[in-house]
Specification:
Blueprint (H helix, E strand, L loop, with lengths): L3 E12 L2 E12 L3 E5 L6 H9 L6 E6 L2 E2 L10 E5 L10 H11 L4 H14 L15 H13 L5 E5 L7 H18 L2 E6 L2 H7 L2 E6 L2 E6 L1 H6 L4 H6 L4 E11 L2 E6 L4 E5 L9 E6 L5 E2 L7 E12 L4 E7 L2 E7 L11 E6 L5 E3 L1
Parallel strand pairs: 3-8, 3-9, 6-7, 7-8
Antiparallel strand pairs: 1-2, 1-4, 4-5, 9-10, 11-12, 11-14, 12-13, 14-20, 15-19, 16-17, 16-19, 17-18
Helix pairs in contact: 2-3, 2-4, 3-4
Length: 354
């Protein structure tokens, strides 16, 4: 990335014999919202802590705005940090909590009053200045923590699982609030989460972490609609994995002979030799049952289970001993366990994964 604002170059971090971040490169543009997504222990939080200055890289370089920061203490990096546990001072009022970073920077009292008021209005808590944290809900406390991270106008805001302690409704509302603030202020935000929905909802780009490395990085649509590896396909959303061997290749289409005996086609730029084992990923919502759409891959199957999910039906079908999950429209033809059906999906709606 030629316009990188934040740059990780060959960054590694080890604790004893354990390598947590492994020779990692990552570039983030100014004003971008990048989520680091992955399972526990994949290295995402450690990378964030190195950017914040709370951990030091074992090797490699970290730059912000073209300047090395990996040798600077946290307070000299001009970054706001929001943690999952809020980290508010319980004995201070909301206004005192938000003003704390400004007092530490020697800002005048009159300017503190003005900037605290603006920050709290931004998170819709202007009327709560005199309350203590214990008098606020979890969502309100997280808004205070967000206001405190923004009040000194940092270059970068770092967020480490900031919504993990909130209930589902509050979490979804805060996702939209943070996204709105990001867009209005043009902030550069680096966001750590293990929640795939959160990452898909909020991010400009998502970096998928696995064993200290970035498995894939791209826009939410790129990550979801074109996973490059089995790990990414299974970690983001649900997927069906079909295994087989390449039967034919040409004109951007691979013919695949599945282990079940069926033949399918995959439209892809992946180059593979005839006879090579491959895995094909297809999302449950891309599979249709008893559709007559022309040109589709078709698999004969038996309905094994039906689960009601409100807005859709989760249908488990069995093809030659292999189970596939289908997200079916509730208004589609009624199905019963034991029904013989045909599952279909187009060659453009499935992908070869490594």
């Amino acid at each position: 990335m030629t316009n990188a604002f934040i740059q990780f170059e060959k960054v590694s971090k080890s604790f004893g014999i354990m390598t947590v971040v492994d020779n990692l490169d990552l570039a983030i543009a100014k004003g971008e919202f990048v989520s680091m997504l992955g399972p526990s222990g994949s290295g995402k939080t450690t990378l964030l802590m190195m950017l914040a200055g709370f951990e030091k890289p074992t090797s490699g370089a970290i730059s912000v705005g073209g300047k090395r920061v990996d040798g600077l203490p946290p307070y000299k990096r001009n970054m706001g940090v929001v943690f999952q546990n809020y980290a508010l001072f319980p004995h201070m009022t909301v206004a005192e909590n938000v003003s704390f970073p400004l007092k530490m920077r020697g800002v005048s009292r009159s300017e503190i009053v003005e900037r605290v008021g603006k920050a709290l209005d931004m998170v819709q808590l202007g009327a709560f200045q005199d309350r203590k944290p214990i008098q606020l809900s979890g969502g309100q406390q997280q808004r205070v923590a967000l206001a405190r991270s923004l009040v000194f106008e940092p270059e970068v805001v770092l967020m480490d699982e900031p919504l993990g302690a909130l209930d589902k409704k509050l979490r979804e509302q805060m996702q939209l609030d943070i996204r709105d603030i990001h867009r209005r202020l043009g902030l550069t935000i680096v966001f750590v989460t293990h929640d795939q929905t959160e990452a898909l909802t909020m991010s400009d780009r998502i970096a998928i972490f696995n064993h200290g490395k970035i498995e894939q990085i791209g826009t939410p649509a790129q990550i979801y609609d074109n996973p490059q590896t089995q790990f990414v396909a299974e970690f983001i959303g649900e997927t069906n994995l079909l295994t087989g061997k390449v039967k034919s290749a040409g004109n951007g289409v691979l013919g695949v002979h599945l282990e079940s005996g069926a033949n399918i086609e995959v439209r892809t730029s992946t180059i593979a030799d005839v006879g090579k084992p491959v895995k094909v990923s297809v999302r449950p919502e891309r599979v249709e049952i008893n559709s007559d759409a022309p040109g589709s891959n078709r698999l004969s199957a038996t309905v094994a289970d039906i689960v009601y999910h409100g807005d859709h039906l989760q249908v488990r079908i069995r093809n030659q001993g292999k189970d596939l999950i289908v997200k079916a429209n509730r208004k589609s033809s009624p199905l019963s366990v034991g029904d013989e059906v045909v599952a279909s999906f187009s060659p453009e709606q499935c992908w070869i994964v490594a």
